[in-house]
Specification:
CATH class of the largest domain: Mainly Alpha
Helix content: 55-70%
Oligomer: single chain
Strand content: 5-15%
Radius of gyration: 36 Å
CATH topology of the largest domain: ABC transporter transmembrane region fold
Number of domains: 2
Distance between the termini: 59 Å
CATH architecture of the largest domain: Up-down Bundle
Shape: elongated
Length: 579
């Protein structure tokens, strides 16, 4: 999993190869400036001897130190600039691809997950990935270059000291690697716990009214506390392992510094008077290099810790991006505008293979018919709607519109022929105008107002602060009934050849319902309509009533015919519809 995540990260970095190369060049210049400063400092120390001070040499070396430090500044600024651009552009690419991926995934994916969890992957995990992985590149690049550069200079100047440093180095790598494995697992558990907490908080906030209505605040608080404590435990474990990296590497670094001091001091004494002595200035230079050599290990250990968190978050993002998409229908033709003949032959479907729902389902609806679908809860009414709209594909059999198997035409062209109003209203954040024209952006304002009037929504829209230009959303200034009227008006503006109404007037008062029902009667005239109904008023005038039970049509006919049979429908009617 970790290797797959890294390969995916490199795939997203590939388009930014040039900026990354510039970051590397800037890092090289920064490291060069930082490595030159101790060299000139060591030579400056050697300009001060018992015989006197070499003022010209001292001035030249001090100027060299100043020049080296000035070299660092502009390249360090440019390196940060390029690195930040890479980080946030990759973050932008990731979020764009993840959001677009959601639109290509089957509805089954979203139905099977908490909305807060999915949102957390796109927003929080992507942010953690950017901050922890990409923004650490600067420290990582400069750290590696510093280590390699210092070793190279030490080998060139005094191989004995370089050999001591090189022998101790593997200890630091071993410590970092052993900590890194545990840290990655801990941060992955932390990311999952964080997602669970965010999903639960989103769920409770969305249903806060229901929670309060049933006095479940304390129970919800206890559940949230459990998830919060689980996140606390995961976070503490992750922080514990990550915090051990820095002191462990600092201990190894202290060993390096002590070894350089010991070996360097011995060389100063043993080479005194030789043609090429190891001077006090050289010892100071090597001690500075020892500090520069060990410092990147501390920084890299911190970066590696952040990498573990970033990779844990990235793994969740790339898991989303790797999900199997809906099969492409680009090669299929558009359905075009249809008459509205709908049929289903030997259809079988289940959400869970272990629990069959619809088996050997048959249906034949002529164009322009008004079909009511009734039955007990869980009998398959909403599932039938999902299959008609091809939100889910059948497991067996065929669903056809005007003789065309809906799996052999594009989904978009099929859904353009349907207008849907559900019991659960949804409005996007935007103006009333934008919400009404969602299905027909090219509709004129006159057509929009006509549709609003037909849906009995025009009067309350005019009373809004800015009328049709008032910004609304799924939550906000509108009542549940007003939201549903806008959803009805939205469909009326589209005027599709087929309609699906799933308790479309459930949140509307009786008086308004009668008015809207009249508008629906006009709208459904000549159009094939499927009405999932619980109210008698929406059933008795239907051309055909489908009575469903356990995923099958057990009876069908008009209201009068079904009552005369005295079967399952008659029982439903006496139990509920007649009251």
């Amino acid at each position: 999993m970790k290797n797959m995540t890294l390969s995916s990260v490199f795939r997203y970095l590939k388009p930014y190869a040039l900026p990354i190369a510039l970051v590397l060049l800037c890092a090289l210049a920064v490291v060069a400036g930082q490595l030159l400063a101790p060299f000139f400092a060591g030579r400056a120390i050697d300009c001060i001897t018992a015989e006197g001070i070499d003022r010209a040499g001292l001035a030249a070396n001090l100027a060299g130190i100043g020049g080296a430090l000035l070299l660092v500044l502009p390249f360090q600024w440019a390196m940060g600039l390029f690195n930040n651009r890479i980080a946030y552009r990759v973050l932008c690419d990731l979020r764009r691809d993840a959001f677009q991926k959601l639109s290509r995934l089957p509805l089954r994916y979203v139905d099977g997950r908490a909305y807060g969890d999915v949102a957390n992957v796109i927003v929080t995990d992507a942010e953690q990935f950017s901050e922890g992985l990409l923004l650490g590149f600067t420290q990582f690049f400069t750290g590696i270059l510093t280590i390699v550069g210092v070793l190279g200079i030490m080998l060139a100047l005094r191989w004995e000291v370089a050999l001591v440093v090189f022998c101790i180095t593997p200890v630091s790598f071993f410590v970092a690697r052993s900590i890194s494995k545990r840290t990655y697992k801990s941060f992955r558990a932390q990311a999952e716990a964080r997602a669970e907490e965010a999903a639960y908080a989103d769920e409770m906030l969305a249903g806060l009214k229901v929670v309060k209505a049933f006095s479940r605040e304390e129970a919800a608080g206890r559940t949230f506390d459990e998830k919060n404590r689980a996140l606390e435990r995961a976070s503490l474990r992750a922080v514990f392992f990550s915090s051990t990296a820095n002191p462990a590497t600092r201990f190894v670094n202290a060993l390096v510094y002590a070894a350089v001091t010991l070996v360097g001091g011995f060389l100063v004494i043993s080479t005194a008077g030789m043609a090429a002595p190891f001077t006090v200035g050289s010892l100071g230079m090597f001690l500075s290099y020892a500090n520069q050599y060990t410092k990147p290990f501390n920084e890299i250990s911190e970066v590696v810790t952040e990498f573990q968190n970033a990779l844990a978050c990235a793994a969740r993002i790339f898991a989303l991006l790797a999900e199997e998409e809906e099969p492409s229908d680009a090669e299929y033709p558009d359905l075009g505008t249809v008459r509205g003949e709908v049929s289903a032959e030997h259809v079988a479907f289940s959400y869970d293979p272990a629990r069959p729902l619809i088996e050997d389902f048959d249906l034949s609806v002529k164009a322009g018919m008004r079909v009511a679908i009734v039955g007990p809860t869980g009998c398959g009414k909403t599932t039938l709607i999902n299959l008609l709209m091809r939100f889910y594909d059948v497991d067996a059999g065929t669903v056809s519109v005007d003789g065309h198997d809906i799996r052999t035409v594009t989904r978009a062209s099929l859904r353009r022929n349907y207008g849907m109003v559900l019991q659960e209203t949804w409005l996007k954040t935007g103006t009333v105008r934008e919400n009404l024209k969602m299905g027909r952006p090219d509709a004129s304002d006159e057509e929009m107002i006509e549709a609003a009037k037909a849906a009995k929504a025009h009067s309350f829209i005019r009373r809004l602060p800015k009328g049709y230009d008032t910004v609304i959303g799924d939550e906000g200034i509108l009542s549940a009934g007003q939201k549903q009227l806008l959803c009805i008006a939205r469909v009326m503006l589209c005027r599709p050849p087929m309609l699906i109404l799933d308790e479309a007037t459930s949140n509307i008062d009786t008086h308004t319902e009668r008015l809207v029902q009249q508008a629906f009667d006009t709208l459904m005239e000549g159009r094939t309509s499927f009405v999932v109904a619980h109210r008698l008023s929406t059933i008795v005038h239907s051309d055909l009533i489908l009575v469903m039970k356990d995923g099958k049509i057990v009876e069908q006919g008009t209201h009068g015919e079904l009552l005369e049979k005295g079967g399952f429908y008659a029982g439903l009617y006496r139990a509920g519809f007649a009251h």
